[in-house]
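User: Um, what's this?
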Amino acid sequence: MDGAVELKSEKEIGIMKIGGAILKSVMSELLLMSKPGISLRTLDMHAEKLITESGAIPSFKKVKGYHWSICTCVNDIVVHGIPTDYLLTERDVIGIDCGVYYKGFHTDSSWSVRVRNDNSRPKDEVDTFLAIGEVALRKGIAKVKEGNFIYDISKAIQEEVESHGYGVVRSLIGHGVGRNLHEEPEVPGYVKGEREKTPKITPGLVLAIEVIYTMGKPDVVYKGSDEWTIVTKDGKMAGLFEATVAQTAHGALVLT
């Protein structure tokens, strides 16, 4: 990412709202499909089918060198997990990351869930971990207000995650989104710099806000030689929650 922040017009945000609705529908179906026995490759193929049938294009296939429609992040995989023939099991957590390119604009979203056939099982520490990630994202989104700063989003996410003893990954962050999948400004999940020196939230700003965190230490490393898959260094569970949010003249609008 480089260059100035590109603010979107109301018309452009309207287009992104349609793309975001497509993405939300795709993500909902993929998460429902994420049951024991299904392969990551099957999820990817279904995502591409749903996106193209909606008149859109998978954003991630526009990323140089990436040949899939989604990223599938299982257990200790933090981001950029490649959809393989791996079959999900009852022991797994999966984070699905997906983007939609519709009429010239990208939207971006991710969500993490337990892989279960039976949702009536007693809650455990993994369920708590995932619930905190969702809360952190919602608290970050709540700071998207005209006159606030990116700092405020970062602070809300960091405080929620770290207050429960989890780690916020430092090397992977949220971002602006629009004509390009990754645009300025950077949106860290942790406080970086002085508040007033971070970008100010103004109408037309569209952000992909991400909570990228771990059950253990926040250090991450590349896994294997595919040059994509990033895992936790200590092998602990990772979580990923992301939404595309626009600041409009009438307030914040969650597009995904």
